[in-house]
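To the wet lab folks,

You asked to see what we're planning to order before we commit. Fair enough. Below is the target structure as tokens, and below that is the sequence we designed to fit it. If anything looks off to you, flag it before the synthesis order goes out.
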């Protein structure tokens, strides 16, 4: 397996303090955590964590977005959900003292505030405010997992693909116009959405025929954002 580039740690206390203040991270704690916090930059495509690997930090995704997916024993992968800021990462692993149970990959350059697991255990296990927030985070994830599991089983690929494109598409300027483009690896997308490569191609072709997408040389351009949004129906939120 190809390893990601190493995440970049931003060793500037003033920048860290400003980030904590900007995203109001201290509201989750009874204590000031500035002296225990670190700031990390994950470049587009890097993983915050990989399934089966140990986690050394409790992260707060404060800027950017990421997709969460799981690897199955039959070699397939399954999309679970998307994360936007502010989202806690590592709470399940922290509570169960286990390696990461899913893969979290950033879809754009993203920033995380991290607190080492050792410091969390040393300073925060008696912080009722923090523990309450962690319970709320776990409850929200359980609710989202239940909903998205039903989506994967019951919704047609067309709807799930529309949601995926809206979540992962990139805004670019084309001839002075802001457009959303989709240019991810289709083989990987087919795996994530639990479908065949052929069925994915047929669905993309159907969306193009409906005037929702337009095929370019190496990517798809969203032509009708309104129709795509209607198809997505707030899936994978």
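Sequence we intend to order:
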């Amino acid at each position: 397996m190809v390893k990601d580039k190493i995440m970049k740690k931003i060793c500037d206390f003033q920048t860290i303090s400003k980030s904590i203040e900007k995203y109001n991270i201290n509201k989750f704690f009874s204590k000031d955590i500035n002296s225990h916090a670190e700031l990390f930059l994950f470049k587009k495509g890097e993983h915050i964590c990989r399934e089966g690997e140990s986690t050394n930090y409790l992260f707060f995704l404060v800027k950017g977005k990421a997709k969460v997916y799981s690897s199955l024993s039959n070699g397939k992968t399954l999309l679970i959900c998307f994360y936007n800021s502010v989202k806690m990462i590592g709470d399940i692993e922290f509570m169960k003292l286990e390696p990461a149970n899913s893969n979290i990959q950033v879809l754009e350059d993203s920033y995380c505030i991290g607190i080492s697991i050792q410091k969390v255990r040393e300073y925060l296990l008696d912080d009722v405010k923090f523990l309450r927030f962690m319970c709320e985070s776990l409850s929200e994830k359980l609710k989202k997992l239940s909903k998205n599991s039903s989506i994967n089983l019951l919704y047609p690929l067309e709807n799930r693909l529309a949601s995926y494109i809206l979540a992962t598409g990139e805004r670019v300027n084309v001839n002075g116009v802001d457009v959303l483009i989709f240019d991810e690896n289709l083989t990987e997308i087919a795996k994530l959405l639990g479908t065949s490569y052929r069925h994915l191609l047929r669905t993309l072709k159907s969306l193009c025929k409906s005037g929702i997408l337009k095929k370019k040389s190496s990517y798809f351009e969203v032509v009708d954002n309104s129709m795509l949004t209607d198809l997505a129906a707030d899936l994978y939120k």
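Structural context that might help your review: The chain has a mean pLDDT of 88. The two ends are 29 Å apart (CA to CA).

Thanks,
Computational group
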